[in-house]
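Lab notes, practical 5.
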Amino acid sequence: MNSSSIPDVIPFIASKTYAHTQAWVRALQAVMPDERIVAFDAISDKEKAQCTVAIVANPDPADLQQLPQLLWVHSVWAGVERLLADLGDTELKIVRLLDPQLASTMAEAVLAWTLYLHRDMPAYARQQQQKLWQSLEYRRPQQRNIGLLGLGALGEAAAKKLIQAGFTVSGWSRHRKNIDGVECYAGDEELTLMLGKTDILICLLPLTPDTHGLLNARTLAALPAGASLINFARGAIIKDGDLHTAIDSGHIAHAVLDVFETEPLPVKEWHWEHPSVTVLPHCSAPTDRETASAIVAGNIRRYRESGVLPTTVDRIKGY
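Output from the prediction step:
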């Protein structure tokens, strides 16, 4: 690409309430010395008219509309369902973050909270409140069946970590995968087969039209009585009322929930005080600014050199 066509500034665009805009600007600028990275509010109208690429973190769509030459945006998040919904029908190309560090961080969280459930930590916490000194029966990891929903980069990394810890691992995806040590299921017809043998179900699926409400009264009922659930994906994948019913009935023994349809989770919601729910503040796999910035920088550099965009989001699939 001819250097004369390179715009003077790349805006970083986030919501007005986002607290880490300047930290992102500094991190991105450090690895992109040939570019000028500036918070959106600090660029001039002339600079806005020249921008062809922007770096975004759940931006206000109205801000993007102020960039008439904008061709594509690079999200610093792996999940882009909110961005797709906010932008609606547009020709704007979206590149999402694909960071191996994210998969490693998520796999760590999956193992940590699987062990939390496997070693009966919620039960021991209740016993402490009752001042009850009593050990519970131990099960070896090999006796515990872990089911993963989603076998993409995150799911595969999580599966390997769980296998290393000795767990028996199954996984489900829309299309057939082949992962060493994992019993792989695929398609709607095989979902309930995997659920029926799962002691701890871990959701790592992207939110798409196909996965919205995938975990509902019917699919939750396919789990064995007393199974547990971890959701590190998106809140809307689970029908919240159906989950509430399944937990209250005891069919789901415990749920670790890191994601919700409304975030932050409102204080009035039932999850906060339910004894069989662990609420986390969307912290299972935070984006690493250092590694993410390096990936964004590499993608933009290659675009400058070749004019070829990185792989963009498929709007139909949602990722």
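Observations recorded by the TA: The mean pLDDT is 95. The radius of gyration is 22 Å.
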